[in-house]
């Protein structure tokens, strides 16, 4: 179950980190230099409380499923990210491991989730915080659940089709209250929702579909990002 991968968190790529238990100064990047990135973490693996380490330093403790940290400034550089079961010794074999290049000026979220086969995975997503047209809000949906492809409906109309894990799609919508439903692709079978959200002008509302269809614990988590 130990997986090792590498990703670059560039402007528009994706990232990690921040919570009350976070100590940003404790982890020094392997290649530190001036400049920071905005990084957050979403824990979307059901039934598993975890600790998160960066370059051997504990950054997050007892992170429970469904937890989403607020964006935090992290110095640019390369980080060895390890996810361990909560309370495990630092040298224990990690559940997940990934080398992450954090680029100055980026805004990213690192997601621990289930892959389509139900196994733990780490995925990095770009947070689009570019300007939104006047009176509009950005809606981003990320499929990080062990579930089939889905369509996403907003106010009765389909805005995203055939969204697969690990994928995302975004659209600008009129600011205000929206009603959303997640359905199996090509059908009207609702798997999540209907849900009601208030999307604020100029912001990016990110909705994560996470959990497991087989275990019937699918859920939604919302992240609001300001421009």
UniProtKB/TrEMBL annotation:
Keywords: Signal. Residues 1-27 form the signal peptide. It comes from the Bacteria. InterPro entries: DUF4397. Residues 37-152 form the DUF4397 domain. Pfam families: DUF4397 (PF14344). This is DUF4397 domain-containing protein. The lineage of its organism: Bacteria, Bacillati, Actinomycetota, Actinomycetes, Kitasatosporales.
């Amino acid at each position: 179950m130990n997986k090792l991968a590498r990703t670059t968190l560039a402007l528009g790529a994706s990232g990690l980190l921040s919570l009350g238990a976070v100590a940003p100064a404790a982890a020094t990047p392997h290649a530190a230099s001036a400049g920071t990135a905005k990084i957050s973490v979403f824990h979307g693996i059901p039934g598993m409380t975890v600790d998160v380490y960066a370059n051997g330093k504990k950054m997050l403790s007892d992170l429970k499923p469904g937890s989403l940290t607020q964006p935090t400034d992290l110095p640019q550089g390369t980080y060895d990210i390890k996810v361990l079961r909560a309370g495990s010794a630092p040298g224990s074999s990690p559940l997940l491991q990934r080398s992450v290049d954090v680029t100055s000026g980026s805004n990213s979220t690192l997601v621990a989730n289930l892959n389509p086969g139900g196994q733990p995975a780490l995925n990095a997503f770009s947070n689009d915080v570019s300007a939104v047209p006047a009176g509009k809000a950005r809606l981003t949906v990320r499929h990080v659940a062990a579930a089939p492809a889905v369509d996403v409906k907003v106010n009765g109309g389909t805005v995203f089709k055939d969204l697969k894990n690990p994928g995302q799609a975004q659209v600008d919508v009129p600011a205000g209250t929206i009603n959303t439903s997640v359905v199996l692709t090509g059908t009207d079978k609702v798997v999540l929702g209907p849900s009601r959200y208030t999307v604020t002008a100029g912001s990016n509302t990110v909705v994560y579909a996470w959990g497991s269809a087989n275990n019937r614990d699918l859920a939604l988590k919302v992240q609001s990002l300001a421009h």
